[in-house]
Amino acid sequence: MKLTDMQVKEFIDVLASDAPAPGGGSAAALAGAMGSGLAKMVASLTLGKPKYAEHEETVQKIFDRGGELTKQLTDAIDRDTESFDGVSAVFAMPKSTDEEKAARKEAMQKALKEATLVPYHTMELCLESLKVVEMGLGCTNTNAASDLGVASLNLKAAVQGAWLNVLINLAGIRDEEFVNEYRSKGEKILQEALPLADKIYTEILNSL
Questions:
Q1: pTM value?
Q2: Secondary structure letter of residue 128 according to DSSP
Q3: Start-end of H helices in 91-144
């Protein structure tokens, strides 16, 4: 069964079990999906209300893009666990001969790269989601202001959690060019995402 087809309790139970996956990567993607989902919810509670008519176009963009990002981040919940399973599968490969050992090493490097790219993509989606949340400041239903704040907190946790999963996989990759590229790209996302999340949270907090 796909993780995203589980009921909430089922997912939490398997997350809390001794199974190595789902783990932090899938949890980060879930946090991201909740963040972007909250942005869409706030837009839903704003659209069509006369009080916010002048912001209708912006709010519609939040609704549309928030929905797209929520779907992509939800898909990342399963993709992250699948990529981890790909790494785990390499350990079952034979290693009796030099040829088998070489094939195993090559397969591991390929699996680790995939396991890096999935949480990195989660980071990209979270940054874009934070920009969508920021669009809602000052133009969405004030009764749902706290939900935008919670969205920013979820997305901040998601981008940081995904980054940890990028780093742990980079540690096992021998391709220095790949490692340097994704370490640099990930750090750039953090440098933009974390201050943005804090800004959103602070603005919401000061408005309550």
A1: 0.95
A2: H
A3: 98-135
Rounded Cα–Cα distance for residues 2 and 75 (Å):
10
**Spatial separation of the C-alpha atoms in residues 138 and 58, rounded to whole Å:** 11
Closest among 66, 79, 77, 85 to 28, alpha carbons compared = 77
Q: What distance in Å separates the CA atoms of residue 78 and residue 50, rounded to the nearest whole number? A: 40
d(CA 189, CA 145): 25
- In tens, the pLDDT along 86-118 reads 999 998 899 999 999 999 999 999 999 999 999
3 state SS of 68: helix
CA distance 78 to 150: 23
Residue whose pair of structure tokens reads 């909430």 in the numeric block: 8
The one-letter amino acid at 149 = G
What residue type is 99 in one-letter code? Answer: E
Distance CA 66, CA 70 (A): 6
